[in-house]
């Protein structure tokens, strides 16, 4: 079964850091671009970042540039999002997705930034 | 950045209705357009990619069309499981951008 499972979310204070992980299974992870997409409570979907198959290209939305870093470990079939200098407005469910058309979604992990 | 708009923002429909949702891009995106369905408390589900290609396992009652800046998602005969919020997204250029969503609820 093709599956993406996120982990690592939780409550973090403004200015803090958290690292999200996404474990992929059921497909050849190294063949696909991978993304992080977030959804703030009660709001729409917002693309955050993506990374090429070999990690040689990475793209970010403007508001997270310099604060978030996307990475991957193809040997471990895993995608990561290192989130630093977190702000209240980063509060959201973070989904990992496969491909730039997001054909596969994980269930998401909630990051709450609050004091 | 490419801005995506959707109309209507919400609609009320009955089982069996034909429903059409429109998505417009602020500039041409060729056919790099995807559609998603999201039910409350669940992750989005991919329906269509490349504007009109149905994802594997998605029923044929869903169809997409369009190219350039104007796109549509059509549900040919609405069923109870189709009441949800629908989003479009362009993947022609960065940043990838989603439309604001169209909520389909029961009339």
Features:
heterodimer; A: 115 residues; mainly beta; 7-stranded mixed β-sheet; 0% helix; 50% strand; globular; B: 107 residues; 4-stranded antiparallel β-sheet
What do you see in this structure?
The complex is a heterodimer of chains A (115) and B (107). With 115 residues, chain A is mainly β. In chain A, 0% of the residues lie in helices and 50% in strands. In chain A, strand 5 (45-51) and strand 6 form a beta hairpin. The model of chain A has no long low-confidence stretch (mean pLDDT 98). Chain B is an all-beta fold and 107 residues long. Chain B has strands spanning 4-7, 10-13, 19-25, 33-38, 45-49, 53-54, 62-67, 70-75, 84-90, 97-98, 102-106. The interface between A and B is medium-sized, with 20 and 22 residues.
* Whole-angstrom Rg of chain A: 13 Å
What is the H-and-E element order of chain A? EEEEEEEEEEE
Mean of the pLDDT scores of chain B? Answer: 97
Tally of contiguous helical segments of chain B: 0
What structural class do you assign from the helix and strand content of chain A? Answer: mainly beta
Radius of gyration of chain B: 13 Å
Low-confidence stretches of chain A: none
Q: What is the tally of helical segments of chain A?
A: 0
| Largest sheet: number of strands, sense, barrel closure of chain A | 7 strands, mixed
Biggest interface, and residues per chain? Answer: A-B, 20 and 22 residues
Main structural class of chain B: mainly beta
* Overall 3D form of chain A: globular
List the helices and strands and how they pair.
The complex is a heterodimer of chains A (115) and B (107).
Chain A: E1 3-7, E2 10-12, E3 18-25, E4 34-39, E5 45-51, E6 58-60, E7 68-73, E8 78-83, E9 92-98, E10 104-105, E11 109-113
Chain B: E1 4-7, E2 10-13, E3 19-25, E4 33-38, E5 45-49, E6 53-54, E7 62-67, E8 70-75, E9 84-90, E10 97-98, E11 102-106
Parallel strand pairs in B: 2-11
Antiparallel strand pairs in B: 1-3, 3-8, 4-5, 4-9, 5-6, 7-8, 9-10, 9-11
